[in-house]
UniProtKB/TrEMBL annotation:
A molecular function (GO) term: metal ion binding
Residues covered by the Thiamine phosphate synthase/TenI domain: 12-180
PANTHER family listed in its UniProt record: THIAMINE-PHOSPHATE PYROPHOSPHORYLASE (PTHR20857), THIAMINE-PHOSPHATE SYNTHASE (PTHR20857:SF15)
Pathway: Cofactor biosynthesis; thiamine diphosphate biosynthesis; thiamine phosphate from 4-amino-2-methyl-5-diphosphomethylpyrimidine and 4-methyl-5-(2-phosphoethyl)-thiazole: step 1/1
Protein family according to the UniProt entry: Belongs to the thiamine-phosphate synthase family.
Enzyme Commission number: 2.5.1.3
UniProt keywords, alphabetically: Magnesium, Metal-binding, Thiamine biosynthesis, Transferase
Protein name: Thiamine-phosphate synthase
One Gene Ontology cellular component: cytoplasm
Amino acid sequence: MTLPRFYPIFDDVSWLRRMLPLGVRLVQLRIKDAPPDALRAQITEARDLCRAHGAVLVVNDHWQLAVELGCDWVHLGQEDLDDADLAALRRAGLKLGVSTHDGAELERALALAPDYVALGPIYPTILKKMKWHQQGVGKLTEWKSRVGEIPLVAIGGMSVARAGGAFAAGADIVSAVTDITLHSDPEARTRAWLAACG
Ligand SMILES: Cc1ncc(COP(=O)(O)OP(=O)(O)O)c(N)n1
Ligand SMILES: Cc1nc(C(=O)O)sc1CCOP(=O)(O)O
Ligand SMILES: [Mg+2]
């Protein structure tokens, strides 16, 4: 299966209601700090919306709920991997995306045979504090030579204008958060992304 090249990340299912009808076909639900019932309801609705639109839903962090609710993909960072039952994930047939930021993290990720590898932050991000400032697009070229056929996701400070450079450097997929969510017209921005990644 070839994944779509545009991979927006949202923190609430209401964004999926708005963006899936525009043609988004790969999306991550990244919810931090929601009460258990609300989290379950959000993931359930996101799962059903994505199925109805023929889109791939990636659940960030909450792998147990993803398994329980019959989702297809999870994204785990390095700290998440410390606690996750990867055998249970695989037994349940879920696909796995993994974050990487340096060579040691990439080695660890590759040993898990992930379904995609993310490298970030390519540019500075305002979404969260990180110990890495910016990797630069050149690192995408190095990462692509190391991941081979595994899809490579560029994340962190990505914008429509920066997407082409990331693809040219070796990214297969470009992911973005605030370039869309903080835009004055998120729908128009999403359409621009879809055109840039088409
Ligand atoms: C596509 C993608 N890449 C990286 C991340 C970051 O995951 P993680 O390091 O676990 O940090 P949180 O997003 O959980 O704060 C991601 N979510 N998606
Ligand atoms: C969630 C996340 N993970 C990153 C990593 O490098 O692992 S960068 C990032 C934030 C991406 O948000 P924006 O597109 O607004 O910069
Ligand atoms: Mg995480």
